[in-house]
Every structure is written in C-alpha cells, then in structure tokens.
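As a warm-up, study this chain.
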Amino acid sequence: MVDVSRDDGAAARANGEASFSSSSSSSSSEEEEEEEDMASIPDMLRGYADGGRLLRDACHDAARGLAAWTRRGGATRALLVASVGSVALAALTGLLVVVFVLVVAATSAAAVSVVVSLAALCALLAAAYVGALSVVVFVVSATTAATVVAITVATVLYM
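Now compare it with the structure written out below.
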C-alpha cells in the first residue's frame, strides 16, 4: 500500500523501486524516513497490544477446548488431564526457580566483580599514595639535609 501524500521518490522506495534523486533532496528524504520511523512507533505498540489480545484469546480458546474434551471423556480422561497439568505445573515451577537462581547468581557475580575491581583500584590508589608520600619524604629530607649543610658551611666560613 502506497501513501499518496508522499513524493514520487518515497512512493518508489515503498514499492521497492530504486529512487534517483539529487544530493539536496537526499537529506530531505532522510528526514522524511526518520519522521516515518517515529510515526510507526504507535503502530508498533498497537501491534503488541493486538498480539497480546490474540494470545489471550488463543489461551482462552485452548482452555475451553481442553475443558470440553475433558467433559466428553470419562473419569480416566479427567484424571489424565489433572495428572499432566500437575506435572507440567511442577516442571514449569522448577524451571522458574532455576531461572531465578541463575539471575541471582549472575547479579551476585557482577556485584562481586565490581567489589573486587574496586579493591584492586583501592590497592592501586594506595600504592600510588604511598609512592607520592615517599617522594615527598625524600624531597623534604634532602631539602632539610641541604639546608643543614648550608647553615653549617655558612657558620664555619663567617667565624
């Protein structure tokens, strides 16, 4: 379906045809495509809502069909449906617990990784701090020693 409000180049692109345009119109066509992408977001959301409704309807139809099939059968069929349903519920619950444990483990691993990285960073910063303090101590000590020597020399020369 082609939107008649678009120019010929946009209509050709919508039909899958090649569009030959100048460089000045190519920037305007890019802007039009961006506007079309932005306009399609509500359509996409509407599609998700329609899909949800279709899924809900399909689930209700399947449940009604299963209930009708169970009623048409006897007690054995009802026992079969209850057994299979219970096993499926237990299996899905176990699967949900496993997924939950995996998510918790992954989150915990990420948190431990961050803490270890921060500890390594703290060790690096501590080493840098100790190194800076060592340089300061050396400079202060050398300056003090040089000052003591200079005062001693000056005192001996002027006596």
